[in-house]
User: Which sequence fits this backbone?
């Protein structure tokens, strides 16, 4: 498999919103990026606030940027705030350190892209991102207990 | 109601400055943004310092950006400083995390725009923003005790 | 009608890609923005190049920025290049002067948002944008013969 | 007289919109800047497009920047495009070379600020800006026949 297709991205978006409906969360926004960090698809549910695209993308972009989930970058931001700030600056403000951004991997472990979700708590955002990846039959790294 | 009109924005500005006169505050500056974060009206009272527009807009823009008052963003900035910094950077410096920015809602709860006030203490700024919204017969979220 | 919904945006995306399939065009990318210029939805077809999101958004954002189609901004760019460059700079590079961005209006003429399409010739991009708007039962300004 | 007051700025805004109503123009947006280029007041009429603040400010800011009307800067942009582009870049995109921005002077010729208007043709925008300055009993430089 070379890269995430638009069809796979749509499947992930449907999976994200299905999980959100099940959990009765606030309106969510979700991006799917390819392995190069390029946007494949984005949707925001009605009632979302205005910076949701930037936040969703920032979670996914950061995950691809350093090869971990955005939850791990949030933890890093507590421990080494100036380092994470340097990543934010180096990426022209494209990294957002909060849970909800997950790498997408194939069965061999290769990174195919990332999903970023925002709108509810970071823990719930991450749950939905994981559900989206699962809906597409793809994998992410094990998510620590949130 | 479709969107905040210029007439409504003027009414809010008058309400902000009337409250400020009543409380005998320092010179204030006030923006009214529509739901998309676009500027409808701005006024600064004589004697205001030079970054007041950027501060007033940053409070209102941030409120619209994440769907809460700018007071809530200020609280978030204490708890998760790098995350809030990432919002500032993702918005090209358009988010200012300090009380004084309030969402404007209609009776059904829909967000119509935001008001941002600066010039006195953040608590007093917020009081005036709330007075402006009330003067226009519109609603904001409950303001925690300042 | 308050604002473009996600459902309406999806209908427009489907309409854009249906027209593209009918005309056998190259891979397209399409954004739908709300009236404030905020992203509601985006999809790029497989095989799209890397700046397609920025181009699609820039067409739609420019249309909302000055209240005309991005074709009109492209014409303006020929006649008054430095003026259009100043709009690009004033918007932090968010205006792209090329056909393919169309305002979305309701029956009363009110602007509800904009669609931006890129990937084939500008004329074909614009045809697809118009088809997307029509698919959602909405209106745009008359498109000059391309 | 030290600087434009908020009262004077409001009088200019009223004068701009009164002239616009008389001429039956499209919705206008208008800024008033003080001599340092700092925003005193802004209003946009209902139905304005989204970049109107940036355009109105860019006309007034440019006028203050080089000490002439923005019409003169537009002429300069035709004759020396790279020079005017360098002004745009040097000001971080804050100069917009199009008629509609006028210096505000007192009787002694001292610059007190500037008015910038946008929304209709540049010529009509400039007519309204001049009417606003006149309404406040202040002066601008002679406007060439538009």
Assistant:
């Amino acid at each position: 498999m070379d890269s995430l297709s638009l069809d796979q991205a749509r499947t992930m978006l449907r999976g994200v919103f299905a999980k959100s409906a099940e959990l009765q969360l606030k309106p969510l926004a979700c991006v799917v990026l390819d392995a190069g960090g390029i946007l494949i698809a984005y949707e925001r549910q009605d009632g979302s606030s205005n910076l949701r695209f930037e936040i969703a993308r920032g979670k996914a972009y950061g995950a691809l940027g350093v090869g971990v989930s955005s939850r791990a970058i949030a933890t890093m931001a507590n421990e080494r705030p100036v380092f994470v700030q340097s990543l934010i600056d180096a990426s022209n403000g494209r990294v957002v350190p909060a849970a909800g951004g997950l790498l997408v991997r194939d069965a061999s472990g290769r990174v195919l892209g990332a999903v970023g979700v925002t709108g509810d708590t970071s823990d719930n955002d991450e749950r939905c991102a994981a559900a989206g990846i699962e809906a597409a039959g793809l994998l992410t790294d094990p998510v620590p207990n949130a």
About this structure: The first helix of chain B runs from residue 6 to 23. The mean pLDDT of chain B is 96.
